[in-house]
Amino acid sequence: MAGTGAAHLLLPTSVIGSWSVPDWLERAKTGVHHGAVSRTQLADMHDMAVKAALKDQEVAGIDIVSDGELRRDNDVDYLLSRVPGVQAPNPVKAFYFDYLDLHLTGRLVEPGPGPLGLAPDLRFTLAHTDRPVRFSMTGPFSLSRRLRCDDHAYPRRTELVLDLARVLNAEARALAAAGAQLLQLDEPFLAGYPEQVELAMAAVNVVTADVPVTWALHVCYGNRYARPLWEGHYDFLFPAVLDTGVDQLLLEFARKGDEDLQLIGRHDWDRTVGVGVLDVKTDDVEPVDLVIDRIERACKIVPPERMVITPDCGLRHLPAPVARAKLHAMTTAATQVRERLLRESTG
Amino acid sequence: MLVEIRPTSRLRGKSAVDLSAALAPVLDALIADPAADDLDLSRLRVFVDWIQYRNGFSAPVELRPVVGSAALELAVDLRRTAGSDPDGVATAVAAALHAHRSGGPRDHITLEEWGPTRHSRIWGFNTLYWLHLRHWEEATGQGYESALPGGRSKARDVAPVRETIAGLFAIWDGLAERRALPEELYVVELGVGNGGQARTWLDTFVEMDRAHGRDYHRRLHYLMCDYSPHVLELARAEVAEHRDRVSSFVLDARRPLTSLAFLRFKAFFVYISNVYDNLPTDEIATIGQREHLVQSRAYLPADAAGAVAHRLGVPPEGLRTLVDKLLRLGPELLAEAAPQHFPRGTADAVEFWRDCWQGLRLQERYVPLQGLDTYEIAPGISGELLRPLLSTGGDMRMHVSNGAATSFAETLPLLHPYGSLQCHDIVVTDPHQYRVSFRGPGKYDGSVVNWVNGPLLAHIGARKGFDVAFAPFAPDGGHVVTMTAQVRD
Predict the structure, then answer these.
(1) Suppose A325 and one of A13, A176, A255, A285 were both cysteines; which one would form an S-S bond, judging by CB atoms 3.0 to 4.6 Å apart?
(2) Is residue A2 predicted with pLDDT exceeding 50?
(3) Is there a domain that residue B227 lies in?
(4) Global pTM?
(5) Looking at the partner chain, which of A94, A99, A228 has a beta carbon nearest the beta carbon of B417?
(6) What are phi and psi of B286, to 5 degrees?
């Protein structure tokens, strides 16, 4: 966990990114599209919501926290609509969570410093917690899947993905300069296109290049509307992911079962693994014993000192009390396993 | 005074209603009848409708108060009043006004307290019908399907079935190539009718699977689900040849996950036919830009109650207890519990049931809502979702389709990431349709029917990640709509 401030901790707990979105915030986010709420008011609400989310995570005992991605309408629009050259012909949404129809008419230009302007979000988060912060961006492959572009500008999608990666790299540099220690790329659409994993991983390397932070990569089977977007197995990730520069690989195992954990050992992944132990697609709160079982099983495959305990994915679709209860179960379970491991190592 | 005329299509054409003649006795009574003397006409709305059901729950003329306000609505069914004796219509208006002034008709036998319509006794009768359908059919001498509007059985239409199965094969082939095809391939049917749909579907599947050559049939599980054990039994007999691939479940369509939780994210196709129109619903109305819940109260009119009570040898007030027992016990046990009233046993109890059902009416009133978010459409679904539908300008009254919304919202989680849902039912596809026509409730034989609020289901679907589309059911058209839900984005 070098560079994250949680280096001393065995089995640190972390969120993946998004936090439960309160109904009032959903209404406000939608209301801003229809003139019921001003942008200034919404920005103020976002600040309040982020602070509350940080507090919730801290109270739940999470070691590595996030801003809950509460400023973002969804996993794509907040980032992709800020990419210089990307346009939204109709920026008004019926419901805030809908995806915008985003277009690119020409080639992406060489990005300047911090082209997405995320550094203020990060600074705000760092200013309101003393815990290590995980700051996420949707990866270039997934962003490219939501971007319509002119065939003349990009006759090959490969070039578009790599150009988006360059934009994200510029942004990552700005985030590192703003104090980021742990940056994460999310690739929620990759599991639907396993045959393109080589391209996606090449793009990951473009993003991470020469950015002096701990890098995490989260690949799941989708969580939009609390539903899986795809089905399959993680074997498509290997061996391509071995050639990336990421330090952590965060995967979902609670909902799908941990059969694919075997891939970690089989392919000699020698870096940190984020083990998803909470199913975020159900409101049922996992009993602590069940989470302990999941962590213990993972410990048989992944050395505990290379493991981060996480939910399967973001908590956006869970009611806040459920999200809090699930995290509490996770941190309690992690603490108990950690204590057992420490007892055994000292005894 | 505001006069709102919903069935505008009836005002023109060869068989146009003479609106002036139809409304004259209504307006005359409102202006001239002594019972209307203290009525503030400026707060009165005359709501003219066309209730197409031969058997319904309303009187031709009714007065609906707005709780906490002097506002009133006089509801007039043009179908039953136009062409009627004008004096009779005027008398009905005067009687409604008089009853309102004196706190309600005294000779009606009310069967419940005021409450949201979805909790009304009418739904108890509806449940009774499906649970004891065999007795009803024996008494009427006809199967329940014959009472449904023409063309409702879609069982034998092979073309859409072939299209669906071809689509599934394409999905399964793609998943198989990526080693992502599950071992078990689930298809669910909610509301199985006579089993004809299942039979057609499975026959066609076998034929197409042989031609396709992937042996998907070996992995197929067809799950038939229905609320009525009797209907399910008939359907099972219809698909006896496919019994190795078919399982059946008695379940409440509003709670599919109670029986089918193991199918979460696993069903590739869910087919629902003629279910949603038969599930409990409230109605919400905007009056003067404020949202109101329509509350109702079931009653037996004096003449109907008197006739039934006389035959059973009880005072009319005694019918409340007997109706309670009927809804709680069903006709067989009711006959056993009260043999003095039902000497011929179950047959007498069924006759009582049918008579009560025939006479059953609903009083209505409007109760202001303290914000749409204080109203729950279905578990976890706030009334706020109705706002875009109600905010289309002017006053509006629409169904909430609570039962359908609950069922739909709880069925969507069954769908595999590549799954889809198809529904055949009578569906309102545009909120404007609520402004121009009556959409229920009505009586189909022994059950309740309401058109389904399609735009609301589309909103619910969108919030859960599904695009919902509507198309007229081909090829016979009619009122039936094909509603399809597909994963969006």
Answers:
(1) A285
(2) no
(3) no
(4) 0.91
(5) A228
(6) -100, 125
